[in-house]
Amino acid sequence: MDADAEANAIDGESETERSLRATLGTFAELVRVPNLFTAPPDVILGASLVAVTGDGFSPAAVAGLAIGSVCLYAGGTTLNDAFDAPIDARDRPERPIPSGRVSRRAAFGLGFALLFVAVGIAFVVAGSPAAVAAGLIAVAIVAYDGFLKGSAAGFLAMGATRGLNVVLGTTVAGSAVLESPLRLLVVPSVVTGYIAAVTFMAARETEGGNRGAVAVAAAGAIAAVLAAGWFLVSGSPTALEAIIGIAFAVAFCWWVGRPLRAASADPVPSTVGPAVGACVLGLVLLDAAFATAAGVRWGLAAGIFLVPAVGLSRVFDVT
């Protein structure tokens, strides 16, 4: 091979690599890859609730359900952009579908495929209860993305996807969730309410001047962290569990408090958008605060997911 041919071959390989990186980057943007790391902490929190009851389960089951929850989240964000393509063409033309990097048809196909895969994984890992929980999440996702977005029912549907994700984690021990005391069932409800409040703010992200929506999200965050404190204290934690749990709760307040204050002071898209992103990622810290009631290792297992989420959020958008 002469020098020119060799150079052309190298250039061809380089072009292929660039194309592959661009494709991977596009799909990472489509599924909101930083946000995917906020899904496993929900499952870990659910599993920690079961651990408190003394029911046994395998770590492999938790890992499997966490993978299923990632598929559900990826399917949800993909379908969100597929359904919103006409709106995004006007408001967010840089997104993968309106920019022409991904076809709307391909996005619909990928989104629904990910939901079906998630339900299948849940069934294989933890049987019918897990498949039912994953199926309910999938239904809530499609309902929100396709029909309910922007309405009160839509905010609750989005919140329910995360609350049900916690419930999904409880299925590692079969029907343990049905046998848990009311105190444990409160946790998914708190997560649901928090995300519903954040979704209310996110729905008005592009409007500007909507300080009331920011206040709703802030109220949701305050209520959630107070509930986490109550949950931790009511479980008679050890000194170490109390310290770690409180540390996660304080970190949550700091993490979401700064951007929410900025958004409240000047509620424009450039401040509300980051506040939405911070609140989404902040769910990891909230999950960790709750999970610490079952033991420090549970809190740390949930909280560690913030590291890759934050790292990737510096490259890819969260909202």
Automatic annotation (TrEMBL):
Location(s) in or outside the cell: Cell membrane
Membrane topology: Multi-pass membrane protein
Keyword Membrane: yes
CDD domains: PT_UbiA_1
One Pfam short name: UbiA
Gene3D superfamilies on file: UbiA prenyltransferase
Chain segments annotated as transmembrane: 106-125, 131-148, 155-178, 184-202, 214-233, 239-256, 268-290, 296-316
GO terms under cellular component: plasma membrane
Protein's UniProt keywords contain Transmembrane: yes
Top-rank taxon: Archaea
Keywords assigned by UniProt, alphabetized: Membrane, Transmembrane, Transmembrane helix
Name under which the protein is recorded: UbiA family prenyltransferase
